[in-house]
Amino acid sequence: MQMEKNLASPARQRLAMLFDDGSYKEIGSFVTEKGNPAGVVTAYGYVNGNPVYAFAQDQSQANGAVGSAHAEKISKMFTLAAKTGAPIVGIYDSNGAFMDGTASSLNAYSLIMKRVSQLSGVVPQIAWVAGVCGGSAAMAASAADFVVMSKDAELFLVPSFEKGAGSAEMCAKNGTASLVAEDDETAVVQVRSLINLLPVNNMASTPCMEFENPTAMGGNDLDSLVNTIADGNSTVEVFADYGKSAYTALATVCGMTVGIAATNKTDSRLTEADCAKLGRFVRVCDAFSIPIITLVDTLGFDGNNDTEISGSVKALTRLAGSYAEATTAKISVVTGNAVGAVFVALAGKGCNADFTYALENACIAPLMPESAVEFLWHDRLKGCNDLNAKRKELAKEYSATLASALSAAQLGVIDEVVESSELRAVLSSALSMLEGKRVTNLPKKHNNFPF
């Protein structure tokens, strides 16, 4: 006797929204949990023509409660994704585990977490938090490469009575949510956009697609630079509300997917959150061999007290390690200030760049110009009537001479000085040449940088 399906359930409606033409093949539709259909719908189909596996927790069945059968259905999707090298989308909407007083649900969540971890960096994982995602499920969702949250969704480890805790807004601010959508319709567009930009697995080439001309040509501010580099209407900014001085986005350049990272979304100095955001983005791009374009322009790091200074050192060390360990194509462009440790971490040939370029107005030096003046030209400050004015004058001279882009190019610190209007063409050419890049790191389990 055939078990009746709730075809109108939000889970199946969301899957229909996700897959091309609303068409998908369900797997395990007869599996039961405690006498009723298991509270998750598992399926496969095509998204933008790419094969994708997905699961959607089903609130119409025991509020989407997680049990062993539920977990086994999800595990099956991860197993198939691993075998076939296809992305997996998890749609989370469950009030939690079955509350029967036993520990059985702990093993169910443990199985899901194991599968998520095993496939991390192998195939793209996208978590769409469409409703409640609490407790152990929150760990599984947060471990995905990208987390898309519907505006009214909740994600938390422990329920809190504090207003806004676990909300999509809060998760965006703390870096858990990559993107926040107004509703399910917007969320699914974001999920499909990410799938379109990502390779199907870590052995596949980056997507190459038709593209529109860029919406800008030239300019030194971040928006102009991004719109000069990227194809028109191809940019998807992620983690926009976390680490607000840093910028991270997926985009295409001449139809090829790239990751764009920048340090000057605001005029503020970089914080630990900015470093964490950039480092996480670099690791995701590297996992799938997505080329990284880094736009460097920052005055450095926050450091108003001992705690912030030590935190900045550790954060920058982790960030530099993420760049140094990454074997994907890496191109840096100094668009403004790149002084000391910032240049080393983000643009130096040892840690980061296969190619390092600089715009004509860039300042590249071991010290900020004002500090350099004190060390190098202190004798020129003697006898000045207006010390501050003279210091600024000398700092400007230092920036235009010893710390200039031309000086860095003459010393071989950077590869070329370019005009902003030529940047897209230069980067496109460099990306083409780096397409066949092959690098193997020394055998080891992982790097071991400070926490």
What features would you describe in this structure?
This protein is of the alpha/beta class. The protein folds into 2 domains: 188 residues, 2-enoyl-CoA Hydratase, Chain A, domain 1 (Alpha-Beta Complex), CATH 3.90.226; 171 residues, 2-enoyl-CoA Hydratase, Chain A, domain 1. The protein contains 14 helices and 19 strands. The strands form 4 sheets. Strands 1, 4, 5, 6, 7, 8, 9 and 10 form an 8-stranded mixed β-sheet that branches. A 7-stranded mixed β-sheet has the order 11-12-13-14-15-17-19, sandwiched between helices. Strands 2-3 form a two-stranded antiparallel ribbon. Helix 3 packs parallel to helix 4, helix 8 runs parallel beside helix 9 and helix 11 crosses helix 12. It is elongated and about 90 Å long. The termini are far apart. The mean pLDDT is 92.
Largest sheet: 8 strands, mixed
What count of helical segments does DSSP give? 14
Radius of gyration: 25 Å
In one word, what is the shape? elongated
Briefly note the structural class of the backbone.
alpha/beta
CATH fold type of the largest domain: 2-enoyl-CoA Hydratase, Chain A, domain 1
- Could you tell me the strand content as a percent range? 15-25%
Give the CATH architecture of the largest domain: Alpha-Beta Complex
Integer count of domains: 2
Sequence stretches where pLDDT stays below 50 over 5 or more residues: none
What integer is the average pLDDT? 92
What is the CATH C-level name of the largest domain? Alpha Beta
Distance between the termini: 56 Å
Report the helical percentage: 25-40%
The CATH superfamily of the largest domain bears the name 2-enoyl-CoA Hydratase, Chain A, domain 1
